[in-house]
Structure formats: C-alpha cells, structure tokens
TrEMBL record:
<feature type="region of interest" description="Disordered">
    <location>
        <begin position="21"/>
        <end position="54"/>
    </location>
</feature>
<dbReference type="InterPro" id="IPR004682">
    <property type="entry name" value="TRAP_DctP"/>
</dbReference>
<dbReference type="InterPro" id="IPR038404">
    <property type="entry name" value="TRAP_DctP_sf"/>
</dbReference>
<feature type="signal peptide">
    <location>
        <begin position="1"/>
        <end position="20"/>
    </location>
</feature>
<dbReference type="Pfam" id="PF03480">
    <property type="entry name" value="DctP"/>
</dbReference>
<feature type="compositionally biased region" description="Low complexity">
    <location>
        <begin position="37"/>
        <end position="53"/>
    </location>
</feature>
<protein>
    <submittedName>
        <fullName>Tripartite ATP-independent transporter DctP family solute receptor</fullName>
    </submittedName>
</protein>
<keyword id="KW-0732">Signal</keyword>
<dbReference type="InterPro" id="IPR018389">
    <property type="entry name" value="DctP_fam"/>
</dbReference>
<keyword id="KW-0675">Receptor</keyword>
Length: 360
C-alpha cells in the first residue's frame, strides 16, 4: 500500500479536531464563447419504430475543453452519450459535439449552458463553485480515499444534494463523470514535499479551494483558462500545472514540462450538464433517454480513464519526463499543510466534508 493511503487517515483524524475550529474566487475571461454554425449536412435517418416516432427532431449542441482525441476521456464520454441518444431516438435527436474549447473556456461554457446559448457540456468542477458554492466541498485536498469512495459520494445522496442546488441556478446535472486524481507537473524541479513548491507558478483551475491549497503548499497559484495553458507553459508565463494523467497526456503537456509528481492531491469529478429549461421542455420519454444515456456514458468514461492510466504513464516516460512516484511523495507533509485550508473553510463546508469522509 502506498504512503499516500497510509497517510490519508490523518485527514479524518485532524478534521475531527481542526475542522471544529474557525469558520477569492478565480478570474474569468471576458471572451464570448463562439456559437456553432448550423449543420448543413443532411441526415439519413432509419425508419423509426413506434417508440422512436414520439420524439421531435432537434439538434443539441454540446461542448467540452479536452482534445478531439482517442485518448481523451471527455471526447470518448461525449461520443458515447451521442451514440446512445441518437440510437434511442432513431436519429430524431442529434448531438453536435464541440471539443477543444471551441465554444470557450469552461466557465464561459458553463455560463452559456446556464443561459441556454449552449445546450450541454461535459465539464470539470473547477468553475462550479461560481454557480453553487456547496460544490466546492468536493475540491478539498486529499478528501477522497480512492475512486470507489468518490463514486459512492457522487452517485449517492451527497451528489444528488449538490445537483439539486445546481438546479436552482438553471443547470441540470444528468450524471457525475470523472476527471480523476490530479498530479503536478512543472519545469523547475522534482516536487516531493510542499517546500519544493516554494515560489513556483502553478496554473490552477478557477476555484478558490484549489488556489488556497496551493498557497498553503507554498506555490504561487495562477488561475487561467485551460485553453491558454499549453502556450503559457511553453512561454514561461507559468512554471507548471496540475491535472489528471488523462488530461496531461492527450494535451501533450509532456512536450513543455519536465517533471511529473504523482501526488493525487485532489480528486476532480466531471459532470454532464444541460440547460435546465431545455431539459424541462423535453417529454418524460426524452428526459429518460438523456438520463439513462448520461449514466451509461458516465460509467464508460470512468472505466476508460481507469484502463488508460498505465498507458498514459508509459507515454510520459517515453517522452522523457522525470516522474516522482507516490512512494517518493511526503504525503504527511502535504496533509499537514492542507489543514489550514480545512480550518479556514470549516464554517462553510465542515459539515458536508465530515459527511463525505463518513461515506464507506
């Protein structure tokens, strides 16, 4: 068993005492999301069955920020969703996927889904706290013990509770998917303990908990849109970033980064979301199609990530990145540094954090 999981008991132990103590959001780009051009391609539709003929013809525009790649979980997850919806409706409902941030950064797209100018997206939880603050509870460092713990939380009562809060802001959650456990890359030096991050400019998501955590670790967190990240690392605007392997590899960050630390410091969910008014306008039958397709696509996307992780590691090794393994990371030191973040936000998130930790 790795040092990481041996150390995780410290979070629960310290939370019981430290979290009982005391009780800035990210930046946002001003660029307007590009709106997709109407499709001029004629569709060849199968002859509908009696169950399929009840659906009206419509096109759903769906975006995400990951690459249009066979290695990209978001692309594979949205393609699976598209396949399932189009099959279930006999081609009456088509899903038009826009990868690679074609429709804007994540916060821009999420705002567009809220307003209804984009129908759907597969998103990380990075900007989610700007729409429902309770979702920030998922973003605390070293909170989830492993994947199974995360799935039980997200697919259970707590995940439903957060989804219900998002409903109030005009965003409907169809299913919780996955980004995964996040790892640190940089161009300065190997990162084994918080002291190694002193002064290093790390791009973070537009998320206050993530920024506070990296400040506690000693880094200089720099929030920016994912679509700007590769160029910013290439030009030295930032020294590094933190993401799951399934984003690091398809995005080819190994071309502009030298060191990878398998820190797993945050577990980052993803989510299939749709404009609530759009979903509410659907017939009950079509709502069922979308919910079932999202649940199946969620499971497919999660398993895709799990199976690809070793392959992703092989890619970065062959690319020449120097890897700091889990056994080399001083998790006790990172956990100790994390406690000031838990303490600072106990008034806002302490109750739900303890509920998450209690899920078995």
């Amino acid at each position: 068993m790795s040092n990481k999981w041996l150390s995780l008991s410290l979070v629960a132990a310290l939370s019981a005492g430290v979290l009982a103590g005391c009780g800035g959001s990210g930046t946002q780009t001003n660029a307007e999301p590009k709106q997709p051009e109407p499709s001029s391609q004629p569709k060849s539709e199968p002859s509908p069955s009696s169950s399929e003929s009840q659906f009206e013809e419509m096109k759903i525009v769906m975006g995400h920020i990951q690459a249009n790649s066979q290695d990209s979980p978001y692309q594979q997850g949205t393609q699976k969703f598209k396949e399932l919806v189009e099959k279930a409706t006999g081609g009456k409902v088509t899903i038009e996927i826009h990868p690679s941030g074609e429709l804007g950064g994540e916060r821009e797209m999420m705002e567009a889904v809220q307003l209804g100018t984009i129908d759907m997206m597969l998103a990380s939880t990075g900007p989610l706290g700007n729409f429902t603050p309770i979702s920030n509870a998922f973003d605390f460092p070293f909170l989830f013990r492993d994947r199974d713990h995360a799935y039980k939380v997200l697919d259970g009562e707590i995940g439903d509770e957060v989804a219900g809060e998002l409903d109030k802001s005009g965003i409907k959650v169809l299913a919780w998917a996955e980004n995964g456990f996040r790892n640190i890359t940089n161009n300065k030096q190997p990162i084994k303990k918080p002291e190694d991050l002193q002064g290093i400019k790390i791009r973070t998501m537009e998320n206050k908990i993530h920024m506070e955590s990296f400040t506690a670790f000693g880094a200089a967190p720099t929030p920016m849109s994912f679509t700007e990240l590769f160029t910013s690392m290439q030009q030295g605007v930032v020294d590094g970033q933190e993401n799951p392997l399934n984003i690091i590899v398809p995005s080819k960050f190994y071309e502009v980064q030298k060191y990878l630390t398998l820190s797993g410091h945050f577990y980052n969910p993803a989510l299939f979301i749709i404009t609530k008014t759009k979903f509410d306008s659907f017939s009950p039958e079509l709502q069922k199609v979308f919910l079932e397709a999202a649940a199946e696509a969620r499971d497919y996307e999660r398993e895709f990530i799990h199976k690809k992780n070793e392959e992703y590691l092989d890619v970065v090794k062959k690319a020449g990145m120097e890897i700091v393994t889990e056994d080399e990371v001083d998790f006790d030191a990172f956990l100790k540094a994390s406690q000031e973040v838990y303490q600072k936000y106990d008034k806002e998130y302490g109750d739900i954090i303890r509920r998450i930790q209690a899920v078995k």
